Amino acid sequence: MYTQGLDVKSDSDRAPPADTPTGPEERFQARVDAEEKIEPRDWMPDGYRRTLIRQISQHAHSEIVGMLPEGNWITRAPTLRRKVALLAKVQDEGGHGLYLYSAAETLGASRGDLVGDLLSGKAKYSSIFNYPTLTWADIGAIGWLVDGAAIMNQVPLCRCSYGPYARAMVRICREESFHQRQGYEIMLALSRGTDAQKRMAQDALNRWWWPSLMMFGPSDAQSAHSAQSMRWKIKRFSNDELRQRFVDATVPQAEFLGLTVPDPDLAFDEATGHYRFGAIDWSEFERVLKGDGPCNRERLEARRKAWDDGAWVREAALAHARKKEARAQAAAA
Amino acid sequence: MARNEWPLFEVFIRPKNGLSHKHAGSLHAADARMALENARDVYARRGEGVSLWVVPSAAITASEPGDRESFFDPADDKVYRHPTFYDIPPEVKNI
Q1: Rounded distance, CA A202 to CA A225, Å?
Q2: How far is A304 from chain B (nearest CA, A)?
Q3: Phi and psi at residue B28, to the nearest 5°
Q4: Cβ–Cβ gap B86/A253 under 8 Å
Q5: Can you give the pTM of this predicted structure?
Q6: Burial class (CB in 10 A: 0-12, 13-18, 19+), A80
Q7: Model confidence pLDDT, tens digit, residues A112-129
């Protein structure tokens, strides 16, 4: 789950100039234009490599941090059925983080550096995971909305020009096909339940709707890397296009639940066949991204604690492997 | 293995651009370079691929065929990992 356009335009972070194509860059672009996949040992522009390392590692961090808000409810799931489903989902996310870190490593990034950048707060991850999971309905809303938004984002990434990323995304999308359904099933049960359960479902939708729309990243006009990423076929659709698709797919699902999307400006436009929706509060998005969301500090503390508490395991496993190797060598001598 | 025998290499071929490498077979060679050239001549004489990997067979750790059932059975009773486990009414679209 959970890739997100996170890069807001700034002066220090511009796309490389496109007006000085040299031989290898032109050949590279021609291969991309012809829908060929780029593989780790192929020549690629430095900017392409940097963009992919940033995007894939942000995506990996998002999977790992994304385990935290849902993990919060594993021990309190209302039934065994819900519990095993949630366990399986969180386990998938851990696996998806690993696939993605491995894809980033094919570009020459080191796993240690990537993890270090997350723990130091230098690297970004999807803003959505800095919101708290206050009730059980939040687990339904995350599966339905957050995974729904992630699917919109991730399906086109299966056709990304970089082979290892595209293949990882195929595997991830296949495995995730149950995530959204388990979330919607939770929402369905609550919205057909008691008044208190319905109110809980509505409250979860109220809190998760806007942060889910922000998952698609800044509007096209504000998005720092969009145009170049489209040229390189890392991205296939703009942030705003994907956001619109998500709204169009999700509003009827909310209506089926009998819930109200918390947007007074939401209206179906007969002429275009799309839903028009209200303005997104981008100041909130930037605040959360910069570290001032409701749970940013808690999430990073949890990751640092997991890393520090696991140090003895990493060291012990390595020491054990070295001891076994030394014994095998001694026996062979 | 006799001391003077060339080591065994496993050969992996990427059948076409965009696909991952797949195991094709194995061969003996004195070193990795020779293994790569021989793999081309043995396994890719008819345009079978666009990229080759050779890996020393001794470097591969494999699961035991005899342990197959017990090794893989943790996945057998987890139907909830599949989308069909969840009941979504047919009227709900795009999910």
Answers
A1: 35
A2: 29
A3: -100, 140
A4: no
A5: 0.90
A6: exposed
A7: 999 999 999 999 999 999
